[in-house]
Write a structure and sequence with these properties.
about 220 residues, alpha+beta, four-stranded antiparallel sheet, rod-shaped
């Protein structure tokens, strides 16, 4: 009983419960807001709502750990030893997921270090920057419209084909031409003026050859 009372006395002397509760609720609110931000504005193709569900418990668990070990070197070394035997096998499918994990862990660490104002300030600075970056990247991607266009046709006049296709593209480059008998294969890289131009592009090709095979592949990583 005496040892337990000594433990409680030591706990209360090193951890201010009022500060802990403030940090706890600040981190919880910030982690929840990061979760909502990621769900609505994240770019990962995986189930963002399901993945974001771990943000709140991860931030609070980090807060709890840092709060307990920050005043004890022995506990810090013990935690390092405990974590050395843990193996995380969950696959991170998108670098963006790892970024948000580090963000919520960082909020938990700052909260555990009893710096709630710093956590709020960091949140207020980081999320607007992420939002602006998303707008810029999204705009660049929407303007790129780079596509790989493959056409297999019996039409042999290259120039007339290029002219017909070029009316629907803001940029066009002929990459490859193959011919076998009366069939010709054309590989082109171009920038669509808009998504609606796809139908016009198909119609222009089929007007030259109703039996033409057309393949349009989005290639956002092609450097033009």
């Amino acid at each position: 009983m005496l040892n337990f009372e000594k433990y409680l006395s030591d706990f209360n002397s090193t951890i201010d419960l009022q500060d802990f509760l403030v940090n706890f609720f600040v981190v919880a609110i910030l982690a929840f807001l990061v979760q909502q931000f990621y769900v609505h504005f994240g770019r990962a193709l995986s189930d963002r709502r399901k993945f974001a569900g771990i943000f709140l418990p991860l931030a609070l668990a980090t807060l709890l750990i840092i709060t307990v070990i920050k005043s004890s070197i022995a506990l810090s070394l013990g935690l390092v030893g405990a974590l050395s035997i843990v193996r995380f096998r969950a696959a991170i499918k998108d670098p963006e997921e790892l970024t948000y994990l580090f963000l919520v862990i960082g909020l938990g660490i700052v909260g555990g270090a009893n710096k709630p104002l710093l956590a709020i300030l960091s949140f207020a600075l980081i999320l607007p920057i992420l939002y602006i970056h998303r707008l810029i990247v999204g705009k660049e991607k929407s303007l790129s419209g780079k596509s790989h266009i493959n056409i297999r046709t019996s039409h042999s006049n290259v120039q007339s084909l290029i002219d017909a296709v070029g009316n629907h593209l803001s940029y066009l480059e002929l990459k490859r031409v193959d011919a076998k008998g009366d069939r010709h294969f054309y590989s082109l890289v171009g920038k669509l003026k808009s998504v609606s131009e796809i139908e016009g592009l198909k119609s222009a090709i089929l007007a030259l050859d109703t039996q033409a095979d057309i393949s349009i592949i989005d290639q956002p990583d092609i450097i033009l």
